[in-house]
Amino acid sequence: MNIKSEKSIKEYLKTLPDDTIIKYYLDVEFSPFPVLLIEEYTRRFKRKTKDEIIKDIKFQTHLAKKKTQDLTRLARKRIAIDDITKQKSEEFISQAQKKGHKISDNILKKSGILGSKLKKELD
Question: pLDDT tens for residues 77-109?
Answer without folding.
Answer: 665 555 656 777 788 888 888 888 888 888 878
